[in-house]
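Box 3.1 A note on notation
Throughout this textbook, protein chains are presented in two layers. The first layer is the amino acid sequence; the second is a token string describing backbone geometry. Keep the layers aligned when reading.
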Amino acid sequence: MEVSLSISNSESMGMSLKISKRKQYLSFLLKAIRLIAVVFLCDLLIGGIIKHFYFHQKYGRQYRAYYTIEKTNADILIFGSSRAFNHYRPDIFESRLKKTCYNSGSPGQFILYDYATLKAVLKRYTPKLIILDLMPGSLFVEQFDGNSYERLSFLFPYYKEHEEMRPILELKGQYEKFKLLSSVYPFNSSVIYTTAGCLELKRFKELNRTDKGYQATYAVWNKPSQIIHSDRTARLDSVKINIYNQFIDECRNSGTELLIACSPRLDTYKGDDESLILAKKIAREKNVKFLDFTNDTFFVRHPELFAYDPIHLNHEGAGIFCNRVVDSLCLSN
């Protein structure tokens, strides 16, 4: 009898432990669900607030990207890096060609960014002329300071609404499509800049003052030209080559005239830049005009036409360069 009661008590205790553990598991599960729900709602709320302010800026790099992607209907669009930003004066193109112009150049951004932006533009309208400013080394593996794939995050705020941009933006990494399910993640590197862009900060506004996307610089470089040897160790990037080809093809298929230019630099290149050679070869095969000012003797002899370094023209130099570009366009028409 005692043995029977002992077994019964043991079974009862076992059942109680099982029930207790089930309650613990259920409690843990409910807490986890609540935590996930709180995180999701916070992500949604904070992301929505940042998004609102991001798309209500009136000046700065983020605003100019927004204007290019969502607003401009200019006849002529300029694509490229800071050299495009500082070298192409819309006033000259407008006065001489009688067409509206907007400079979409973005400092620190290259062919990957250009193509993603182009996709959004062509979905909305067809410019009459697109000018792509291409730097020597643009088709090399990480030739420039920083990481051009990492810098695609600058365009992440457009990921959800612009399906056409997604394949390019996902080149940043294999997990980006999952990270971008978050409402905050697309803006996590832009909060400080967005805040400055929304506030009436005089200094920020002065630094970002542009004329139809173009930023004039009035500094004068005072050092003579030097000889720069091409990097023979650099490797071509097959992804960038493919993107460059697609950029050309999409312009042609849309009916947009395309001009590719390598704008002036003070220093003289010695040796073959395989990236530039390939870029010109592809353009030639696709019957696209390519203007190469890399070792242009006029600019090499005039350091006073450059601004704060040997690869960026000042306002006067940009004027001379743009007039030569327009001359070339007029001759080809």
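The chain has one domain: 61-149+158-173+200-332. Residues 61-149+158-173+200-332 form a domain with the Rossmann fold fold (CATH 3.40.50.1110).
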